[in-house]
Amino acid sequence: MKLAVSAPGRICLFGEHQDYFGFPVVASAIDLRVSIQSSSRFDRTVHVDLIDLDEQHVYDLDALPAPQPREYLLIALHLAKREGWLPQKGWHAIVSSQIPMRAGASSSSALLVAWCALIAERSNRNWNQTWIAHAAWRAEVDWFGEPGGMMDQTVCALGGTQHIAFQPAFKSTQLPTPPGSWLLFDSKEPKDTLGVLSRAKDHRLKLIQNWECLGTIDWAQRPPQFPQQWNDLEKQLMMTTLEIRRISSEGAEALEFSVPDLEQVGALLQEHHRWLSEGIEVSTSRIDGILAKALEAGALGGKINGSGGGGTGFVLCEASRHDAVTEAIERAQGHPMPIALGAEGVRFEKFIK
Question: How confident is the model at residue 111 (pLDDT cuts 50, 70, 90)?
């Protein structure tokens, strides 16, 4: 049996560094994809060729080694074995990606979503896109307790532009695909996923828990009444959290219209980036500089994308300014890539028995 499956990358429009608190986010799948071509084997070994990384892996389904953190393909096999959806026969898989690798555009989550769908399909397990999103999250985040949310896996699995709520229960609502001309750019700086996530999440989580325990939390109050014992840094971290939560709400409302006000969307993206850069310091001087040059060339707004410390960002502009903004990003040492938002989620490209 031959199977080919793919899943899209994503950009986070609104709510970056908020999903791991259970706060709503808005993210959109993009038309850059990870693809897996697979063919069945007659034994119980799985052979994987990651051609973009020049890596090869072989796994014996009867003797899976203990996984290390971030060995997501192996973790997914262990997860499938533990939960009863591991295939009886092995396969050979060839993985290729259009998504910038390890740059914040969810190449890892897209790969894991496609991999979990492939495992489930080969085991004849009944699944849907939401089930795949949850399975990928269990493998990527929950297995080793890593500091991440569920935004990436949800958007890579479901596709489209999603307004995702996590409390009081998980709910993903598809929004209209935002118009305009969108450019993803790679800063060519390596990102620091775990370091940034740990710093951006752990301290703020303690502050939120402390505030809620005091029984005085009012998310809408401006200016908020912070606990008196908090220092200036702690107040800045929580103010950033509150403002990103507000921006996310306003951004979701703006995108509910079939023809949103692109200037408003751009301004909200720019404000979001400022809080990320100055409030929790997840941007870099190069990414800030690329965004500044794009704005000078006519972009309506943009922000860093993903965990931060390097990696990718994106900008929104009118179609008439696309070429000028592209050139500005190149001059600022970024690598621009035109993208379309609202791409289809995880899908099987071929099914040949």
Answer: very high
Q: Where are the alpha helices (DSSP H) in 92-219?
A: 107-122, 129-137, 151-158, 193-213
Q: Token match 């896996």: residue?
A: 153
**Contacts by residues 320-327 (CB-CB < 8 Å, ≥ 24 positions apart):** 321/181, 321/297, 322/181, 322/183, 324/297, 324/298, 325/181, 325/183, 325/294, 325/297, 325/298, 325/299, 326/183, 327/297
* Top CATH class, 181-339: alpha beta
> Alpha carbon of 81 to those of 9, 41, 48, 144, 290: distances in Å?
27, 18, 18, 17, 45
Q: Name every residue whose Cβ is closer than 8 Å to that of residue 262 and which is 6 or more positions away in sequence.
A: 179, 180, 300, 316, 318
**What gap in Å lies between CA 342 and CA 10, rounded to an integer?**
9
**How many residues appear in the chain?**
353
Amino acid present at 254: A
Q: List the domain boundaries for the chain.
A: 2-176+343-352, 181-339
pLDDT at 59 over 70: yes
Contact of 14 with 195, CB cutoff 8 Å: no
- What is the DSSP secondary structure assignment for residue 141, as one 8-state letter? I
Q: At what angle do helices 262-274 and 232-255 cross, to 10 degrees?
A: 160
Average pLDDT over residues 158-185: 94
Q: Is the pLDDT of residue 259 over 60?
A: yes
Give the tens place of pLDDT for each residue, 120-130. 999 999 999 99
Where in 149-259 does DSSP place strands (E)?
161-165, 171-175, 181-186
Fold of 2-176+343-352: Ribosomal Protein S5; domain 2 (3.30.230)
3-state secondary structure of 10: strand
pLDDT of residue 114: 98
Distance between CA atoms of residues 216 and 238, nearest Å:
14
